[in-house]
């Protein structure tokens, strides 16, 4: 697509709720909006566009930095593809509907 950039985000797996998963790390391929690329291709806005997922990254001044996310907890609903990689259950067009960020405060409601 003329306005998307492919990303590969490493994730640490804390728990698996359903299905089989070996290991404690996951490499998650996804796309992000690239407005600079879009403007070069003449795209001003996208009506009814994709609902992409955004993982907050560590800030760095290095131009070739990876997509290492901040230490935040998510529940991510994934499916295993035929090639063994994981993909969002809602697909690559609307992956944000498969990702839910956990609020740390909500995990400790009963504590004072």
Could you characterize the architecture of this molecule?
The protein is mainly beta and 112 residues long. It has one domain (4-108). The protein is 5% helix and 27% strand. The chain has 1 helix and 6 strands. The strands form 3 sheets. Strands 1-2 form a two-stranded antiparallel sheet. A two-stranded antiparallel sheet has the order 3-6. Strand 4 and strand 5 (86-88) form a beta hairpin. The longest helix has 6 residues, at 35-40. It is globular. The N and C termini lie far apart (50 Å). The mean pLDDT is 78.
List keywords for this structure.
single chain; 112 residues; mainly beta; two-stranded antiparallel ribbon; 5% helix; globular
Summarize the structure.
The protein has one domain (4-108).
Strand ordering within the main sheet: 1-2
Low-confidence stretches: none
Binned, the helix content reads under 10%
Structural class: mainly beta
The number of helical elements comes to 1
Radius of gyration: 16 Å
Sequence-ordered SSE layout with sheet pairings:
Elements (H helix, E strand, L loop, with lengths): L3 E9 L12 E9 L1 H6 L33 E3 L1 E3 L5 E3 L10 E3 L11
Antiparallel strand pairs: 1-2, 3-6, 4-5
